[in-house]
Design a protein that fits this description.
Number of domains: 2
Structural class: alpha+beta
Strand content: 25-35%
Distance between the termini: 25 Å
EC number: 3.1.3.1
Number of helices: 8
InterPro entries: Metallo-depent_PP-like, PhoD-like_MPP, PhoD-like_sf, PhoD_N, Phospholipid_Metab_Enz, TAT_signal
Shape: globular
Protein name: Alkaline phosphatase D
Keywords: Hydrolase
GO molecular function: alkaline phosphatase activity
CATH superfamily of the largest domain: Alkaline phosphatase D (PhoD)
Length: 505
Amino acid sequence: MTSLTRRTLLIGGAAAGAVLATTGAGSPRLDNPFTLGVASGDPSHDGLVLWTRLAPKPLTEDGLGGMPNRVVPVHWELAEDERFRRVVRRGVEIARPQSGHSVHVEPFGLRPGREYFYRFRVDGHVSPTGRTRTAPEPWSIGQDLTMCFVSCAHYGEGYFTAYRRLAEDDPGLVLHLGDYQYEYAAKAADVRTVVGPETRTLADYRLRHALYKTDPDLQLAHAVAPWAVVWDDHEIENNWADEVPEQPDPDFLQRRAAAFQAYYENMPLRRGARPNGVDLQLYRRLRWGNLATFHLLDTRQYRDDQACGDGWKTCAEAGTPTRTITGAEQERWLLDGFRRSRSRWDVLGQQVFFAERDRKEGPDKELSMDSWDGYLASRDRITRGWVDARVRNTVVLTGDVHAAYAADVKADWNDPASRTVGTELVCSSVTSGGDGNDTVDEVQLRLNPHIKLHSRRRGYVRTRFSARQLRADFRALPHVRTPGAQATTLKSFVVEDRNPGLNPV
């Protein structure tokens, strides 16, 4: 993949402010509507999603971004080169007020494993240029894949430098595992101004997404590669579980519907993910040829309420056989995907800690009820499912906990010597929790010998999938409360084909 060069970005930025002689008659000319950047996502071997949202004044309190209450035609182009001399698809998509003037374009019939460039045009303004790519042919291993994954980006608690460093790693695919934005109002300790109240209405959520999308580092990360996104809790509110809010709230379902609508409007999701009231099916699969299948999970919308009142507990209720974190339908879908898979690597892109994480000395375990530790039977069914299906290599990707971890997944959590049946990689936060530190929880590592890494530094994980191995580089930043930090590799691991378990490099 060629780099999206500084020159390309400057061309795109200049074009965004340019006015061409294409203004439609009868309507006032818009100011530059591309303040939120562009994005692409959910690539297949012959198609993908192109996204933008029109917002000439992105931070208006009504969440409408300064757009008039009318439909607006948006012209788009997809080309094989960054100067758009070899345009392969073009068209017009209608941006509607009821969709926050967002557009989701789904060009199809594209060539597999190819790099493309895209842009939009409205009322004479041209958007920044984005780069994307399709997946390889379904039957092909293809070239090695560099995939970066991130989670937990609180706007007020730091600068999004990790997104820029991720973009500089030139990934072919980016996974965002949740907490893309946070619902909270501004706090005194914030280093950047969070605009708007705690998010509860559609206008609130639209405004909050717009605030995040104005960040240049996030815009850059979206522009260099296709993304696949799943939510966690803060896209709606902290630690919600299906229809149960964190605190009693008679209006929670309306809040959930508003959050879902804004999430769809602001993410490069296919039109099939458009919400239906309080429901939005987010779980889905992306196949990267025969090299990798990404099973993208939703562990919030269908889960049982957290056991024993949530928090860290010694809790018998967590072991109830009927408890589920995925819901029955999603679980069946995932287990069926394991049985049908012929991929070299099966990857679960999901939200909360999968491996056991005990933090109490003695015979009783103290576990997080918000993680898979609070849904023991659900985790056992999923683990047995991939083992019984003889999945070749299983890797679980996780966010949520604002710390980096690397762990072996064991067949029996009560026997540390039991067989390793998979690998879990946990990314730290982009900013949530502020700068972080170098303190390592030695007690946690001793009580959980399957955990091979723990770090509270901010950053992301860079992975490289090949036919023979998966390499994971834990990328860390020394600070995020001031901008411009450089990323270094904190630790690297390799997982060999057909040999689950972490090998330090």
